[in-house]
């Protein structure tokens, strides 16, 4: 009996060693769902998330109705994300949400899906299509799972991504402004003021509107932009710069005329904006 126990222990140890690396000398078909799952976990710990993703996928193939199939799918999404294989991470996370929308790990799956976009956001000099996708996915986490531990993290990332879109508009607006294409520049800065007013770029956008509108001879708009800037950011350097521009033309920072900025100014005074 003792010899049998020793032989059994040796066999178990050999199986563990064989499965402990990035691969396995034992056919997957000969392993239980739990053994495959544990192999995938070891592969992640060993720094082989690409192998782990494939291993977790084997559970879905071999044991689709086991209790480990659900856990393996979310772990596969995690492994792909760890490997920076974002399209496959997104696909696995979405498949989890399709199959298990009410399960405990659903909020994490939605968060991983959002991260698959967010972690690909490039610098502001490039196309921001992924930023839009990230914003939509992060909003879904926030609205669908507001009590989950991933909601707060999604809010923080949403704000950063939102700020990045505003930064892109500002970059393009400055480009047009430097090339004396004032109308195009004003349109970009208007987008920031109207659509991204909660970002850090709003004060500069208002100042740039003062610059652009003065260059276009639209003094009412320039004065009103200066008034909004002064009302909300009077202590900022941007307001000081706008004030100098306006007074240099014999103008003051006050609401004037009937234009889109005057409408915003009235809302500001009533406390309905910013």
UniProtKB/TrEMBL annotation:
For whether the record's keyword set contains Transferase, the answer is: no
Asked if the keyword Metal-binding belongs to this entry, the reply reads no
Predominant subcellular localization, coarse grouping? membrane
Q: GO CC terms on record?
A: Bam protein complex
Keywords assigned by UniProt, alphabetized: Cell outer membrane, Lipoprotein, Membrane, Palmitate, Signal
How does the record classify its membrane topology?
Lipid-anchor
Q: Which GO terms describe its biological process?
A: Gram-negative-bacterium-type cell outer membrane assembly; protein insertion into membrane
Identify one Pfam family in the record: YfiO
Coiled coil residues, start to end: none
Localisation: Cell outer membrane
Q: Which residues form the Outer membrane lipoprotein BamD-like domain?
A: 30-225
Extent of the signal sequence = 1-24
* Assembly, per entry: Part of the Bam complex.
**What is this protein's function per UniProt?**
Part of the outer membrane protein assembly complex, which is involved in assembly and insertion of beta-barrel proteins into the outer membrane.
* NCBIfam families for the chain: OM_YfiO
Record-stated family:
Belongs to the BamD family.
This chain belongs to which protein, by name? Outer membrane protein assembly factor BamD
**Gene behind this protein:** bamD
């Amino acid at each position: 009996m003792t010899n049998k126990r020793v032989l059994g222990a040796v066999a178990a140890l050999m199986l563990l060693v064989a499965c402990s690396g990035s691969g396995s000398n034992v056919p997957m078909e000969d392993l239980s769902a739990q053994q495959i799952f544990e192999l995938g976990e070891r592969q992640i710990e060993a720094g082989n998330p690409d192998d782990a993703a494939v291993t977790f996928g084997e559970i879905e193939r071999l044991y689709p109705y086991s209790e480990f199939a659900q856990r393996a799918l979310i772990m596969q999404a995690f492994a792909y994300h760890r490997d920076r294989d974002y399209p496959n991470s997104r696909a696995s996370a979405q498949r989890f949400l399709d199959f298990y929308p009410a399960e405990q790990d659903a909020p994490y799956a939605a968060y991983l899906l959002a991260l698959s976009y967010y972690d690909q956001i490039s610098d502001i000099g490039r196309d921001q299509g992924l930023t839009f996708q990230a914003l939509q996915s992060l909003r879904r986490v926030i609205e669908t799972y507001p009590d989950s531990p991933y909601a707060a993290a999604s809010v923080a990332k949403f704000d950063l991504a939102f700020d990045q879109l505003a930064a892109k508009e500002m970059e393009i607006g400055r480009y047009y402004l430097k090339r004396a294409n004032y109308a195009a520049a004003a349109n970009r800065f208007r987008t920031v003021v109207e659509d991204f007013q909660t970002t850090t770029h709003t004060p500069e956008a208002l100042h740039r509107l003062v610059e652009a509108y003065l260059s276009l001879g639209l003094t009412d708009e320039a004065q009103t932009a200066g008034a909004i800037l002064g009302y909300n950011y009077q202590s900022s350097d941007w307001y000081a710069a706008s004030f100098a521009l306006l007074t240099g033309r014999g103008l003051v920072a006050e609401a004037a005329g009937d234009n889109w900025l005057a409408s915003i100014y009235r809302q500001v005074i009533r406390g309905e904006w910013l």
